[in-house]
Amino acid sequence: MADEIPTLKAQDAVELLAEWSLNITVEEINKPTTQTVQAIYDEMIWQLLHIRLDDLDGPRNIIMQDMDNSELYGEGLKLRMFFHLVRHLCTRAGVEGFSLQDVARPDGLRLRKTLSIVRNLLAFKNERADFINSTIQRMEDAKQREQELLEEEQRLREEYNAMLYVFTTADRAIEISDFVRT
């Protein structure tokens, strides 16, 4: 796990989670349960990606359409998708070795380390938000300009082809009149 990031104290973790509108106690941080960490990771995903656990219902239902006995697998598949998303996010954030054990049998110290890394990532995201938003805006402007230029190119090609047709037709008319005179 990213050793250079100091591990949050339990009280600091509680304060961070309170900022996320989660009412978690110091005791729940020190001895977390599966339900506690699921709520925390659900909120973590919301803070970073604006995705909720319930947002996975649509993709889950699509997957389950072709499954036999899909009612048996519905919640398990949703939780598996959730875990995959959390693991991917934690791995990208720098949490080493994030596994199902971090959700099924959570450890207070590991949870605090994970929250430390996520807090650091959120701070970076917020710090860089203006740059990221301006970069996204420039990309969108460039795409729009590209589309305008493609439309202009198409218009000019059509205009060129129309002029070429007129000149070709005029040249043929001249050739025909020369042929008729001879």
Q: Could you walk me through the main structural features you see in this protein, from its secondary elements to its overall organization?
A:
It is built from eight helices and no strands. It is mainly α. Helix 3 packs parallel to helix 7 and helix 4 packs across helix 5 (70-93). It is elongated. The termini are far apart. The model has no long low-confidence stretch (mean pLDDT 84).
Brief descriptors of the model:
mainly alpha; 182 residues
Helix and strand topology:
Blueprint: H1 10-19, H2 26-30, H3 34-49, H4 57-64, H5 70-93, H6 101-104, H7 108-127, H8 129-181
Helix pairs in contact: 3-7, 4-5
pLDDT averaged over residues: 84
Largest sheet: none
Estimate what percentage of residues fall within beta strands.
Answer: under 5%
Spans of at least 5 consecutive residues whose pLDDT stays below 50 are none
Number of helices: 8
Spatial shape: elongated
Q: Give the proportion of residues in helices.
A: over 70%
Q: Rg from C-alpha positions?
A: 30 Å
Helix/strand/pairing class, anyone? Answer: mainly alpha
Order of helices and strands: HHHHHHHH
- Whole-Å distance between the termini? 94 Å
Tally of strands: 0
